[in-house]
Amino acid sequence: MTDATSNAADKSTVATALDTGTGAARSEWAAATRIVVKIGSALLVDRTTGILKTDWLSSLMDDVAALAKAGKEIVLVSSGAIALGRHTLKLPKGPLDLEQSQAAAAVGQISLAHAYQDFARRHGLIAAQILVTLGDTEERRRYLNARHTIDRLLALKAIPVVNENDTVATTEIRYGDNDRLSARVASMVSADCLVLLSDIDGLYTAPPGSDTQARRLDLVTEITPEIEAMAGDAGTELSKGGMKTKIEAGKIARAAGCDMVIASGKVMHPLQAINDGCPATWFIAPSDPVTAKQRWISGQLEPKGIVVIDEGAEQAMLSGKSLLPAGVRSVSGTFDRGDVVIIRTATGHEIGRGLIAYAKTDAERIIGKKSREIADILGFSGRPELIHRDDLAINRAHKGA
Ligand code: GLU
What we know:
This protein is of the alpha/beta class. It has helices spanning about 1-5, 10-15, 25-30, 40-45, 55-70, 80-90, 100-120, 135-140, 140-155, 180-190, 225-230, 245-255, 270-275, 290-300, 310-320, 360-365, 375-380; strands at about 35-40, 75-80, 125-130, 160-165, 195-200, 220, 260-265, 280-285, 305-310, 330-335, 340-345, 350-355, 390-395.
């Protein structure tokens, strides 16, 4: 990444950030060819003045250009529209209501897109704006459309810059945070690595500000209930996502076979810093191949129901078998045939997600029963499986764990 380190002043900034780094890139980073980078509002927009931090953006785009030059495909997911727009519109400090956020996003998104276009152009790169709504990633046909568009842009060597279409999103149908959106995008485009640039350099065992014993984790190979418990809920006024949404992002990314890293974006050249092995938390994905359909299933943000299974069914599913009605203890939620449901053990641990073959009212009648009894109970002969193995996305631990 020669471009990114050519400036002596910038080099010293990175060196400071790397004091406890290893000096070498993790193998996952070196091997990644398609990388999604999420940029939070707090990094991009000055909290007090509401002005874009152009020096920082310039250093980020130096790194993006260097990576692109090295043959990597980069997709940016950038926040900042609301933070920029609220300042221009002189909206009051503190939380905004939905209409204020929509108005702020409509104003700020123009400046945001323009800034990316400008800095990309300085490196001879082309920036492309993609605004998505939750529905664009939840509904299969629209999801495939968005995927094709991003694929084509990457083939044309453009840098897609994605954000949520906040201007039309309503409370019930919005991501609201770009952590999960970026994971969904990473899953959608089959990225190898998702970078969450944050105002903190990783996941800590406790909030580092208030607990002196707090320790940063270098590596997460499975998202256990203990890991989830480490995530507080704190976000700042500028950034919606706290550590909780980052863990959610980790789940979506890992299930899609995509590694994720939470690293500090408070340094200049934050991607160069990752290249140099800066302190960070890496979430390593299992190495089992993940099909395109499984990516879509596991990344669904709003599963319609929950299926609680017994131990026998859990073992069978972990060894690659379908879920039969006999292994199910209970079903809840409101789902139709073909909807995505969460699969949990009796202790509440989520072991995966799948497309259920029966609507809730039918599923309730056949759970605990043998598959050959289905026709008699329901009066029609449906599939012997409640969830077929081709329609399952199981959460697997990292192979080496
Ligand atoms: N989409 C929002 C924006 O551009 C940001 C959401 C977030 O902070 O994660 O302002």
